[in-house]
Amino acid sequence: MSKIGNISPDVEALGLESLSARSIVLSVLLGTHPPTLSARRLIALTELFGIRSGTVRTALSRMVANGELLVDDADYSLGPRLLLRQRQQDEGRSTPTDEWDGRWYTSIAVASGRPIAERRAFRAAMVGARLAELKPDIWMRPANTAPPDRPEDVVLVTGELTADDPSDLVEQLWPLAEIEQRSLDLRSALLRHRASLDADDPSVLPNTFVLSAAVVRFLRVEPQLPSELRPASWAPPGLRDDYDEFEAAFQRLLRSFLRTIG
Fold it and tell me: Residue 134: how many CA atoms within 13 Å on its side-chain side?
């Protein structure tokens, strides 16, 4: 994948992936309610990244063929599977409840010899529901969030946990230090780039898209641990608050740009 232009060195230093035409289309539609935009607007947006219109049209056709997008005349919308991802994104941005009664979810895939597509779907469902893998096909988390879906041949147990120290289990399930540092790095980048969104200058949109996509991706799987099980200095709640304000300014600038396209 080629690098995209107009990305500042400090955002690039975060190790963020370059955005392809497909990634840009998905990012803007996942952040749009309802998630529908015309081909003309999608092409105009990707041109800010230096991507040719033919490349975008090819990407749109492939995404329709793969079921990622639906097309009606020249308007493109998210397909059913990506509507679930949008819901997970929205849930990741919402402030989690701090009420927890001590129970845990344990999700266990009991069927052996499952096709690789089913294994991948199960893993994606568990990650999307913010469970973490204890051992192959055994996923867990505190029951302070909505329960995960229970696919066929999966046992879901909800109940209190008997353990010497639940905090040790949490550290086994999640790399807390890495999550904390990533949250701090993203929060610092948001604060540095927030002022650039007030100038009504669409040239900052590529930089903003890359940073916004990274934050949303992080918040979609951030474990949302109850206060009893997370470090006292836990940074994700602060990142979530800062991103709300950043996203509002980002959407104002994006809507302003899209209105110029008609």
Answer: 14
